[in-house]
Amino acid sequence: MSDGLILGIESSCDETSAAVVRGGREVLANVVASQMVHAEYGGVVPELASREHLRAIVPVVREAMQRAGVKYEDLDAVAVTEGPGLAGALLVGITFAKALAMGVERPLIAVNHLEGHIHAVLMEAETSLAELAPILALVVSGGHTHLYLAGKTTAHMWRYRNVGKTLDDAAGEAYDKVAKLLGLPYPGGPWMDALAAYGDPAAVRFSFAQIKTKAHGHAAPKLTREAAADERHFDMSFSGIKTAVRRYVELHEMRERVAEREAAFRAEGLAATKASDSAALARVRSLLDEEALNLIASFQASVTGYLTRMAMAAAKHFGAEALVVSGGVAANRELRRRMTEEAARRGLPVAFPSISLSTDNAAMIAAAAWPKLVAGQFAEDSLEPTPQLRLG
Length: 392
Ligand code: KG4
Ligand code: ZN
Hints:
This protein has about 400 residues and is an alpha/beta fold.
């Protein structure tokens, strides 16, 4: 092995991505092709996602290799997302990665997408952070809202224990559904985040149901009190707030204005723009009244407050030495602000990925593959997508 040059491939949802990363840290190239076709359907259409991956995979890999300025024979391994994700979407990346690894005679490494999200932070963080264990990691995206306790087994290898998860919708999914309810473009999370700045976060009060703590080790009938406490699970729920927003919209007769807004967005082609485009944001904002902006700000305050409280409670309970927040929703500015403020109050170091590594990308897959390359943990020739793959 030379210097651990890994080509990573990610195709679990609606981003086709390829990246070249050296030694698990140095990103030589990270190319992400986001599929725009889903915007007009207001959600990811699995069949279309697979077809788009098939179209994009060769140009995206070629571009990543060119930008990195490396040749295929320079690679030490090819890494690919095994799951969780959409079966057909994962299949495109896995099939391509297998064929490529075979062609260049390099090992293939299978990576759990959720571990990838955690490595998006670890790869960028100061090495001192990675030395702190256990770390409480919140992975929060359109498909996942999970809390993990991450620790090291050896100098390189990480192990994870799932200590909490959403029992229904993922936080990003709730953002997207509420945005859709208000007639905002898809995906709605970034729009909601940008628009929340113009509303009053205290205008509407939303509450989250307390989820009963449950011991998930059913096999152990008589846990001591300490062991039972250690088994505590920090489960979450986001479907209640989604329903509360729907009721609010109905009660306040906001539906009609939603229809007008959707028609305007369509007529002006705003569905294909991004919240980071300031002219588009100004136009979308002008189509929202004060009541809608207040609702958006209140939703954002409630969700980010809830995520922050749950992460802090879990960190305290398990004696975590540091916090890591990753996944698409980790791009949310209010979540970053609250987590940073609360962590500082508790004297806990906290780290987020850079914005471009928050959402799905292949750099995090190549980074997570690096310890596996060192340990010689390679995928079998029979590797298949595992849509429900779990971590910890
Ligand atoms: O990690 P990701 O790219 O894909 C999944 O693995 O799901 O996350 C995408 C999700 C979407 O639900 C999107 O609306 C949400 O992350 N998201 C945000 C923000 N940026 C992306 N949600 C709230 N605020 C943001 N700034
Ligand atoms: Zn993801």
